[in-house]
Amino acid sequence: MSPTALPRARIVVTGVGVACAVGFGRETFARAMRDGRRGIGPVTLFDVADQKTQLAAEVPGFDVASALPASLRETGSRSDALAIVAADEALRDGGVPVALARRAAVVVGATTGGMLETERFLAALHAHPDSLAPLANMLAHPLSAPAQVLSRALGLCGPRRTVCTACSSSANAIAMASDLLRRGRCDVAIAGGTDALCRLTFSGFNALGAIDAAPCRPFDRDRAGLTLGEGAAFLVLERADDARARGARARGVILGVGSVSEAHHITNPQATGEGAARAMRAALEDASVAFTDVGYVNAHGTATVLNDAMESLAIRNVFGAQADTVYVSSTKGMLGHTLGTAGAIEAVASILAMEGGFVPPTAGLEHPDPACELRHVVGRAVDADVRVCLSNSFGFGGCDTVLCIARPDFPEPDAPRSMADRTIVVTGTSRWSPSTDGPEPSARLDPPRARRLDRMSRIAASVADEALRHAAGTPVSRTRIGVSVGSAWGTIDASAAFMRRVTEKGARLAPPADFPNLVLSSTAGHVSIYHQLQGPSLTSVSAATSGEASVVCALDEILSGRADAMLAIGIEERNALVMRVTDVLTRGSRSGDVGAEATKRSEGAACIVLEAHDVAERRGAQIVARVRGWSESAVQQDERHSVRDDSCAIGEAVAAALRDAMGPRADVASVYTPVDLACVTKGVDAILPNAPVHVAASVVGYYESLGAWCLAAAVDEVQSSRASVSAAVGAHAGIAWAIVVERG
Questions:
Q1: Where in the chain is the domain with CATH 3.40.47.10?
Q2: Active-site residue (options: 300, 526, 531, 732)
């Protein structure tokens, strides 16, 4: 079966917004880049007296309260407020009308979320263990909060996603938003990242010895580590034809994306630069651009000894002799390493630089390292006529993502890449729950390979192992298999324990081996490393629908052509802190929002092997189910532009999601859903009045990524011929998801 080729829309950037250590706004940012002005100074947000360094790149003079709407000032975080400022500027810069903004998709990349505020609650809880007041605020700051806050504050009611791939998070957010536009799931998207400084990351990077006591010096022979920073950056993305039709000016074009996993080490980059080079080549191939067209590489350039040398090798590997003619610089010398924001802020930097006819310098670089011999920009910006650039983002766990960005006047290629209208099938599943399957399923893992895995990663690697065993046949190339993990909380107990150690023993005694596993994307990274899967590695965070988000993101990666197969994993480990918080909330007035089963907290995991049908056929795999359709629908706004989050409105979104996934036919025999929500029942009844609804939490207990377990159960049902078509449906905070499978 040959996939059908579809026209591929050109994605343009019509607006940008930024809040960073050199100030607010694109014009301020552009001037600072021309001058090579640094925004690094003493940390004021929290006490760093016992740390190796007292420096960071803080956003100066930022009043969080004034940036947040009145309704969010009690619960909003610094990350939320930074996101609102940058996204609002991007929308205004793009001239996006209110009616269009209401339908806009929101895709956010992040690594810390509201951790700065959460740390305050943890400290209060540590001082008063029996107090309920800190617990009541804990759930206001999960990693998915900024996306939800943006939607509420700016009236954006399209699809909503949060992705965490450590330092490449917001580059992947831009890639996801481009996919949504190309597939027609939205007409405009606001994509980017936001991360505020916090004690956890500051202490963690200090513990790893990755911090320079002085301002960082990317690519310098005397470099000694990174400087942490904070900020937010967002881009308005549209299809070129749509932007042209409404008279919008394009600032840049997202030509292509390369996303790979090094599958090497959870913190150290692959010394040869092979993974980074593969990501750059993939971005160029996706863009249908020759490396000879590229005039600038906005480097990841963290100023760590290993990263800068690796990236230099990778650039030389890709460009060969032309590496001496391509400008290379890193903005981290000005802005610090902004973690989840880095990909977006560097995409904005690249667009503004090409628009302004210059290449920014690498601030702090005085004596280029011979091991990093490239065409560096030192001191001040240089005037240059660059039409195409690469923006590199490399994250913990080897999550490497590269964006190929062009000026609007760069012509479309003579033979642009088309989109493959691929049929996607399921070739393997696995499920684990302690209530039905016993203790954690890690006994069959290879001990030497699993020795660095924390408990959550061991469980994820185990369910992935079982699902891969089911997906027998001639193996798919490991460079074409990726991992998509969904988790709302990650290892929050371990994060609390790490901060308790820092509080009680001091930052210099923070355990360095523990920190990497606290980054939410570490589980996906560990699974990629353990199973040597070198395709895209993603982590989706969508509160109570994290499992559904993981599956849909995996499907999109296959449709985009970045992978031939994806392991979609939904996982949550039992977190004592989350259980205490849930107990407090279910005593209050909001208990009805989560359903009765949600009070019976558990842990669990599920893995679904999703694969392009033509690939599965060629390798002789058994097809256990076919993915018939999937969708995500958002609650629309009322006349006052406020989001309707009531059960009736979400029920409408569930009905719309099911309708979109199934098309004109409505023959779903059964529906699986995490909890017994009135809005889900209402939505299902509106489309499928006779379909039984199976509530997963009543069988295995509740955890936030239970949606992946529901899909695995739906696949098992159609495989056993009890039903010809089944669906997994979930809803939370104004977003509804539906994934429909039929017998293979």
A1: 9-419, 420-585+593-743
A2: 300
